[in-house]
Amino acid sequence: MRRIGIWIAAGGLLLGTAACGGGGDAGTGTPAAQSLAVGFVAEPANLDFTATEGAAIPQALLVNVYEGLVKLGQDGEIVPLLAEKWDVSPDRKTYTFTLRDNVKFTNGAPFTADDVVFALDRVRTDWKLKIKSQLDVIDEVDKKDDTTAVVTLKRPSNGFLYSLATRLGAMFSRTGVADLANKPVGTGPYTLGSWRRGDSIKLGANPSYWGKKPPLGTITLKYFKDATAMNNALLTGGIDVISSVQAPESLQQFADPNRFQTVEGTTNGEVVLSMNNGRPPFDDKRVRQAVRHAIDHKALLETAWAGRGQLIGSMVPPTDPWYEDRTADYQYDPAKARQLLGGRTLNVKMRIPNLPYAVNSAQVVKSQLAQVGITAEIEPLEFPARWLDLVFTQGDYDLSIINHVEPRDMSIFADKSYYFRYDNPEFGKLLASADEGTEQQQADDLKQAAKLLSDDAAADFLFLFPNLIVAKKGVTGLPKNAIAESFDFTALAKQ
């Protein structure tokens, strides 16, 4: 969640079962018609990621159902998708995209430059999310011809093309946006088949897909509220893949290499201990600094997530070029924490999503804060709807814990209305300078911004969430790293 998105599921309401999409759930168009079931935790509340915060919708639909002009590769590089290529003017303000020909939406409409104009203009006029401000840098979008779209920026922007690789760059049909919450219309290799609310979403292969046909005819996204239930489903054959292990200490039960395989890589998901900078006691920088000194991050990672993941100390993951290890900024020092509190004792409310990593981490944080005189009352909230309402939207919390999974999302701290309620104009200036400058200036400015964020103790950064996948032996194409918003199903196959 910029932006929340990023890390959470989605708010809103979806009634009943979604209507069938163009591809159905039968896998038409894929000769083998093989199926695969993948286990997930956070289920979307609807399918409209233009109006609903959260990561669960783009996780399921981006790249798979919706495509953009570009997408992120496994190493974070920007690669072509619906655009075969693009040219950038010498002043870095004009991007000319050459589009693939003979691409169709699942409603039968052809994809042309008119749709590029429509989709990008719609971000500014119809999207409801805070992250849409990333594309405020666009001055105008024009159609040169059916296969050429020209985007002119108000100023040079290092982040523009990267933003197009997120949900912001998804292409929509001009005749396919009437019911985005229930009927997604995209150009991707899969279409929506059916939805059993509270249970599963089924995607079927798109028979008219412009590119390489996916190896699998049907993908079922199976949702679990309990880590043990998801583990048991893999052990008993109910699913083929656990998309993200929710109980790392349980990995031993999948140790048989004749039955299972484990993939471990990295993500850009920062598990953040959020502090409400906009109200007491965390409007006091010294109290926020005390919290950071009170947390033994190494012990927390070992206890809460079986040592899986990485300590980074900032809102920047190692996959970003401007990453610096900031774990030494606030050493574990309870005496220093008590000194910063000045003898005060505090009672605070920690409202967290009822997700395993947050619940486990909250117990450790509560125990460690108690050692310095801060009593934290843990209140688990139903996720996503209740957490989104109270914490993200209303800002009615003192502490929270959430995994921010959106790529390059440090800019969420530049919005003082965002749920952190952090307000430092200097931080925003650094981000603006970074976006417009050279690549070296970008890296330098963003390093300074990360340092400022850390110095201000705007939040505490508990650990970087690992990409930890367990699957049946014979499943191929599993992503080692999860550094984009989507879980890309297009390479998955079964031997």
From TrEMBL:
PROSITE patterns: PROKAR_LIPOPROTEIN (PS51257), SBP_BACTERIAL_5 (PS01040). GO terms for cellular component: ATP-binding cassette (ABC) transporter complex; periplasmic space. It is found in: Cell membrane. Pfam families: SBP_bac_5 (PF00496). InterPro entries: Peptide/Ni-bd (IPR030678), SBP_5 (IPR039424), SBP_5_CS (IPR023765), SBP_5_dom (IPR000914). GO terms for biological process: peptide transport. GO terms for molecular function: peptide transmembrane transporter activity. It comes from the Bacteria. Keywords: Signal. Residues 77-403 form the Solute-binding protein family domain. Residues 1-21 form the signal peptide. It is a lipid-anchor. Transmembrane segments: none annotated. CDD domains: PBP2_NikA_DppA_OppA_like_6 (cd08494). Belongs to the bacterial solute-binding protein 5 family. This is ABC transporter substrate-binding protein.
